[in-house]
Amino acid sequence: MSIIERRTQQQKELADFDDAEIDALLSQLSQSELEELSNYVDPDDSCLPPSERCRYHTEKEPTGPFNRQKLIHYLEEQSKSEKDWEEPVPFETKKRGKAFQPRQVVTEDKDEDDEYSNNTEWDEVLAGASESEMVELAAILGFTGLINQVQYHASVSNKQIDFGGWSAAAKCDPMRVLPPEPDNDTNVDQSIQKLKRNDPDLKALNLNNIKNISNEKFRDLLGALEKNTNLRMLSMANVEFPDSLGEELCQMLSANSTLQSLNLESNLLSGATITRICQTIVENKTMLELRLANQRRQVLGHKAEMAIAEAVAANRVLLRLGLHLSFPSTRNRVNERLRGNWDLLRRKRRGEEISDDAPPMPPPPTSYRGYQGDEKAKRRDAEDD
To answer: What is the pLDDT of residues 159-172, one digit of tens each?
Structure first.
C-alpha cells in the first residue's frame, strides 16, 4: 500500500471521530509523539500557524528581541574576520602593449624669398579679418557648409544683417500675416445668361466654392451648355453638385462638342455617376482634362473602377484624369492609356499618320489576383450589386 493510499485510509478512519474524541487522543500523546505526528500533516494547511508549517524547528532559547543594526554589525565583523578564498591565479598589475605617444608633426620653415611660395597679398588681409568678416566672406563665396541658412540668404539678397560667428544660430523670419483670399464673386445668373447667348468672350467659367446654388440653376446651366460652342473650361469644385443631376450632366457632355476641361472635385457624386461620365466623354471626343476626385464616397469599388478603366482605355483624346483609384490593376491600365494619348498627341504634332483604330490595350484581369485586397474587393462588389 502506498503512502497516499495509507493517508487516505487514515483520513476516512478519522472522519468517524468527533472533535472531542480527537482532542482526548491528542492529550494522551507525549511531546515526541506529537512531533512525529506533525510530520504527517499537510504543510500547506491554512489552519496551522506559520511557525508549525515548517518541519525544521529549533530548540534554542531566544536571546532577546530582534535588533537589525546589531545583526548587520555582527555580519560585517564576521566577514572581516574570515579569511578570503585563495585565488588560483594571483593578481598582478601588468602593462601590456605599447604606450600611446602622440604623433609629432614636423613643420618645414619656408623661405620668404622662395619663388614657389604661395604667399600672396591676401594672406595678410585674411589674417587680420575678424570672425564675422570671415563668415560674411564665406557666404559671398557660397561656402554653405560653413554658415547657416540665414547668413547665406542675407549675402545673396544683399541684406544688412548681423552675421555673427561660425556658431551663430539660425533665426526664423517673423510670420507674415496675409489677408484671406476673397470669395468667388462670380454671378451665377449672369454666367447662365451669357452661356445661353453663346457669348464668344466667355471661354472659361469658374464657379468654385460658391455655396447655395439651387438645383434649378444647375439645370439651367447644364441646359445652356448643351448648345454652347464657345466655353472651353468649366470648374465647379466644392459647390455641392448633387448626384441626382448626373443624368443631365451626361446629356450635356454628349451634346456639347467644345468643352475641353471639366472640374467637379469635392462634390456629391457617386461611383455610378462617375462611371457614366467617363463612358460619356468617350463619345464626346473633345474632353482633354477631367477632374472628379474627393467625392462623397471615397471608395468606388472594384466593379466601378474596372468600368472606368475600360472607358478610359477606349478614349484616345483624354490627357488628364483627376481621380483616385484604389487598385493597382486599374491604376496601371489608366496610366498606360493616358501615356498612349500623350504619345498620339506628340505624333500628331510631328505630322505622322495615325490610324483610326486605337492600339490594343491590356485586357482586364479575369480574377481577383491582379491586385491587393481580394476579400475586400469582393465585399465591395457585393455591396455595389
So the answer is: 665 655 555 555 66
